[in-house]
Amino acid sequence: MSSRLSLRLSPAAEKAVKQGHPWVYSASVRDLNREGEAGELAVIYNRDDKFLALGLYDPASPIRVRILHCGKPVTVDTAWWRERLHASLMRRDGLFGPETSGYRLINGESDGFPGLVLDRYAGVLVMKLYTAAWLPLLEEIKALIVEALAPAGLVLRLSRNMMESAGRDFGLAEGIIYGEAPDVVVFEENGLRFEVGVRHGQKTGFFLDQRENRQRVRQISAGAEVLNAFSFTGAFSVSAAAGGARKVTDLDISAHALAGGDRNFALNPSLRCQREKIQADAFELLAAGRGPEFDIVIVDPPSLAKRESERAGAVTAYTKLFESALRRLRRGGVLVAASCSAHVSMEEFLAAVALAASPLRTETLWTTGHAPDHAVTFREAQYLKCTALRTR
Predict the structure, then answer these.
(1) Which of 125, 152, 265, 367 sits in a 20 to 30 Å window from 389, CA-based?
(2) How many CA atoms are closer than 13 Å to the CA of 347, on its beta-carbon side?
(3) 261 and 368 in a common domain
(4) Same domain, 60 and 88
(5) What is the mean pLDDT of the chain?
(6) Reading across the β-sheet that carries 23-25, which strands appear in turn?
(7) Per the domain annotation, does 199 fall within a domain?
């Protein structure tokens, strides 16, 4: 029988773990007693050879250990995982009423399940894994999820970088791993109906993290003409229409995404709102500086900084993008600007918005971070930023 996988860390990494950081990078590992396998529990000892923490080991990832527990030794067994799952579910208790059936149940590291997220779409659950460390534990975790939530179906999604190893080493592929689930599920958000491709859509199929910001847009849209740049499947547009918008314009480079917007509007037949679609590059169309003006312009682009080296360029790109969007606003109009770039901080994002708006007189209507079901506990996970400015 192999000895327990154990390791020690560099002084800086040891300090970070003590302070609650959930990641140990490969370059920080010292004195590994043997090479571990994906999903092994790795015990971390401090410089005095005392227990510091334990976590899930992934030899193929730059994040070599994802911390599960720090402090006194614990036994990680089915009962321990059951308690951790219960705690995550209780954090969402009371957040949503019957008018909302789409939300996150487990948000990775911040809920004690590093590299795993679980979203609910009506009766179907979607689990996405971002590290192969979960693959040996999948059956155990699946059983606990089914026991606690009794879903109609559970769908497994895998990060692209682990698909090959999942199939080769564990015989696993994306798809239904419990019960039944259609390819497309309809769920509700604040009383509005949306479709989600649970087996093939981006992430787990839908961007649930913008739920509260969509509701805020809904509350200011009465009588407005709205441009939804980078509209994807039109969730912001449906929300604006529900708030009484006179007209919404969806702008996206993808015909497939715009067609998804068609279906989401069709799911809400009571909406009385003129809708226009423009298939074009939103960066180029806005930068052209000509075209109709709007009462509200929503700018929620894909991540502009996928790595730290792209951060400075992303901040510059955000500033130019927001400048272009502001030129499409009528006097008294509202810019809703968002970023999902984790490498761009809230301070840098707001500075880019402020610089873009500096020639104008504006007032801030709101500034938000993560939704309550997407709450985060460490800096690297803080990707979502949104602010709304009204011009005077």
Answers:
(1) 265
(2) 1
(3) yes
(4) no
(5) 96
(6) 23-25, 63-70, 51-57, 41-45, 6-9, 29-30
(7) no
N residues, the chain: 392
What's the number of domains the chain is made of? 3
Record the tokens describing residue 98, joined without a space: 């019957």
Confidence band of 2 (pLDDT split at 50, 70, 90): low
**Token output for 234:** 């039109």
- Name the token pair of 348: 């840098």
Q: Say if residue 352 is in the same domain as residue 241.
A: yes
Does residue 287 lie within any of the structural domains?
yes
Closest residue by Cα to residue 197 from 137, 262, 126, 141: 126
Q: At what angle do helices 235-242 and 211-219 cross, to 10 degrees?
A: 30
The reported pLDDT for the residue numbered 218 is 98
Whether the per-residue pLDDT at 1 is higher than 80: the answer is no
What is the structure's pLDDT at 306?
A: 87
Calculate what percentage of the chain has a pLDDT beyond 70.
99
Q: How far apart are the first and last CA of the chain?
A: 72
Which residues span the domain enclosing 21?
6-70
Nearest in space to 388 (alpha carbons), one of 236, 258, 275, 261: 236
Contacts for 376 with CB less than 8 Å, ≥ 6 apart = 107, 109, 110, 370, 382
The answer to whether 52 and 30 have CB atoms below 8 angstroms apart is: no
Structure token pair of residue 380: 């690297």
pTM assigned to the model: 0.95
